[in-house]
Amino acid sequence: MKLKKSFAYALRHSLPIFAGFIPLGLAYGVLMQNAGYNALWTGAVCLFPFSGSLQFLMISFFTGSVSLVTVAVMALLVNSRHIFYGISFIETFRRFGAWKYYLIYTLCDENYSLHCSAKVDEDMDERWTYVFTATLVWLYWLIPCVLGGLIGSLISFDMTGIDFALTALFVTILLDQMKEAASRLPAALAVVSSVVCLLVFGPDNFILPSLIITVAALTVLRRTIAPGKECA
Q1: What does R_g of the chain's alpha carbons equal in angstroms?
Q2: Which residues in 190-220 are b (16+ Cβ under 10 Å) and which e?
Q3: Sign of dihedral through CA atoms 106, 107, 111, 115?
Q4: Cα–Cα nearest to 26, from 52, 47, 60
């Protein structure tokens, strides 16, 4: 019974992610197909790196003969924010035994947001709620990407701007979290930090310093903002 309720909650909680992933995943599959890589390659990339922004960047790596050193450095820079995601879930994942490795692997932006806003009732299994959520989000991304690769050659309309779907998705998640948050200070800190770092470091380099400043501020104010909570 607990597993059933955990899965039902994970499905209900994560389903909006699927709506955002459909256009973005289709776009990625189409771009991979146009670059000369079929749906099998698209699925393989979704399975192993499982990083939306890096996967889009990897298309240029595939077609531009980029060195492995450059790929490694770019992957580190693009996904450096995941370091902070993982830090906030060390204690939680540690309770889940071997499943912690799978949850670490699937801790993408969307899963991080869902895990932070998860409300696990007593009649649900906490570990399986996290696992079901992570798996569903992974499938939400894999399916449209592979489908886009399969039908890529049939799509001829202009897809400029379709990647904005991911930005819209995050704005929706943020607003949903703010409605139920005990304090809106974390969101305010993140906004101010992002704007200041954007002005100082520019659009290509502001994410990492913004994250460092935000995490440092939230760490200092953690007990004041949300005592006992692991996510701001």
Answers
A1: 19
A2: beebbeebeeeeeeeebbbbbbbbbbebbee
A3: positive
A4: 52
Residue 148: which of 8, 22, 14 has the closest Cα? 22
Alpha-carbon distances, residue 105 vs 4, 86, 167 (angstroms): 24, 10, 22
Tell me the C-alpha distance between 139 and 136, whole Å.
5
Token pair 């693009």: residue: 78
Cα atoms in the Cβ-side hemisphere of radius 13 Å centred on 18: 13
Crossing angle between the packed helical segments 164-180 and 185-201, to the nearest 10 degrees:
150
Token output for 131: 């696992």
What six digits make up the tokens of 122? Answer: 């007593």
Beta strands per DSSP E along the chain? none
SS3 content of the chain, % helix, strand, coil (to 5): 75, 0, 25
How far is Cα 143 from Cα 43, in angstroms, rounded to an integer? 8
CA dist., res. 223 & res. 67, Å (int): 45
Contact at 8 Å (CB) between 103 and 133?
A: no
Q: Can you give the pLDDT at residue 160?
A: 63
pLDDT single digits (tens) 28-46? 888 888 788 888 999 998 8
